Model the fold of this input.
Amino acid sequence: MLMTMDPHLLRTFVTVARLSSFSAAARELGYTQSAVSQHIAALEGDLRTELLTRRPVEPTPAGVRLLEHAAPLLLRLDAARADVLRLASAPPGRITLAASPLAVGPRLLAALPATGVTLRVLPPAEVPAAVATGDCDLGLVDGPAAPSDPLRLPDVAPLAVTGVAEEELAVLLPAGHPLAGRAAVRLDDLADARWLDAPGVGVPPGLARTAPALRYEGTDLRTLCALAAAGHGLALLPLRVARTAGAGVAVPLDAPRLVHRTELLSPGNLTGAAAALAARLAGGSPYGP
Amino acid sequence: MLMTMDPHLLRTFVTVARLSSFSAAARELGYTQSAVSQHIAALEGDLRTELLTRRPVEPTPAGVRLLEHAAPLLLRLDAARADVLRLASAPPGRITLAASPLAVGPRLLAALPATGVTLRVLPPAEVPAAVATGDCDLGLVDGPAAPSDPLRLPDVAPLAVTGVAEEELAVLLPAGHPLAGRAAVRLDDLADARWLDAPGVGVPPGLARTAPALRYEGTDLRTLCALAAAGHGLALLPLRVARTAGAGVAVPLDAPRLVHRTELLSPGNLTGAAAALAARLAGGSPYGP
DNA sequence: CCCGGTTACGCTTGTCGTAAAGATT
DNA sequence: AATCTTTACGACAAGCGTAACCGGG
Done:
């Protein structure tokens, strides 16, 4: 009776929690409602704890806790399978590159036409998972970091990371902002400013102590810049990007020495066209143009 | 037939790989050799790849790959179970504290007598796992970091981390060393020095570009200091510790601004005596004596 | 021929679906 | 009454052990 928390059960558990419904989860997973009910019962019996309230279906505190663990677990499981299978399977003919919006810079655009590469733009938080699970062959992520410090990425799988670029960071302000005239700003100056929360684009994790001014779920850079320029909230962006925003004023950041860093993620095994593209992206002088 | 890589199978796989024997693994796991054989066959069939060579029993490249994933996976699984169970179970009467050798400092020794605490000294790499799996109730880890930067810990589970102390780092040199007279050293000066590799004590991940001079598996600080003083290799230690080493010369480090940081790890839910101890350890002025 | 891994086979146990029952709004 | 979850039960497959098999020192 002492099962080791079968991944199948975890999978249906997260699905039920996500959909707040046994029957909907059953449809999505191709089970009967009955089976789903039995899965949840098995989990709860194994842990001797209620994980979900019924009617309405919501996770209990213990369920919430399990959910926090289950997602990364299932991800790692997929990553493991994909990683092993990659060894045996032939290198993909058409390679797919996952990139966060801000990682799509001149260097990438120059290297792209090399071969038939499919570019998929994802929120930065999803790029490591996409590479780990084999959905994409390579990944480019970006984020703020101390100079020459690697990014802090969720370790879904042992991926090879290579620093590709580091750029100056800037704050994008609306034209009339009191700090808009400055040559540079310190983050302290913005301690209680309201930031834009844009998880699909990137950047502001932890910097914002205050509640975000506005949340933007998309991955479109222009939209984000427009929002910032229109005064809906501040945005922290690479200087290069902030400068090219139509409106608004880009003021470089200097106080906490932070840079906008881009890294290349590659699965352990890498051959053929993917390896060639990786070399193009990482190659040249370290942190070139 | 499309199993999701049952943890049971993974567990026997890692055991077989570790023991290089089906029958030994069977004994350890309480199965028959036959069952173990079937487990491996099931895994190999699922992945359509040979994972182990027989006679001698060794992992194939694909097997090595799977091993890298399997260990963290099983760890996370245990962590998830422990985390959920902790919610229901009563807070432990006697609490256990996992600490890496260098985290055992004056602050800890002052706070310890408070209640009946069991102290368990572990290699720093094992502390997060001990806390995550519930083997210990709290953890103290240490490592080098940029000032006020959190340590880079393997994320086996979502643990709460609190900075507890930051101290100056120093290099412990034998008395006759050319740099022994300096007031401070830069890491560049030691670019091709030979370091002691002491994973049980901590500190030198990545700093050493060269092969280690000597490897010490234990967790005893005095031994490590003695080895360094006797010229078997350099050791990077908190200045406080390096100074108290009987022999050898402690030279502070200044060039790359690095500190020796200690952090407190606590599982999400924390009550009773454990919470009290956590407060004692983390409390007071930030990074106090 | 012995040691160790594999294969064959039967038994037990678990898992899923159908269908009826129970609960909640 | 309608909707959604649980329970009962039967069919089927999976997992384990016993025992026979086989291949290499």
In short: The radius of gyration of chain B is 22 Å.
